[in-house]
Amino acid sequence: LAPDVYVFATIPPDSVTPDGIEALMRFHEAEGTTLILTREEAMARHIDHSFACRMITLEVHSALEAVGFIATISAALAAQGM
Fold first, then answer.
1. Containing domain of residue 9, as a range?
2. 23: which DSSP letter?
3. Number of separate domains in the chain
4. What distance in Å separates the CA atoms of residue 55 and residue 34, rounded to the nearest whole number?
5. What is d(CA 72, CA 48) in angstroms, rounded to the nearest whole number?
6. Which has the higher per-residue pLDDT, 44 or 14?
């Protein structure tokens, strides 16, 4: 579980994305540009944001369609109160 809290922010299509943003992800679509960035950066830059979340990295190589894969992950998360 990554220590940072990430948020989603949408920059309207007629706005310019501020220079130097360290976004984990940028997705450009007609409604604007969606960014995933740390809550700390969004707040420091006064960017409206929503859906605070954490990033989970699984250090295993397995097909997502493998039987029981998601159930095993879900059980581990539930055991941690998530």
1. 5-79
2. -
3. 1
4. 17
5. 35
6. 44
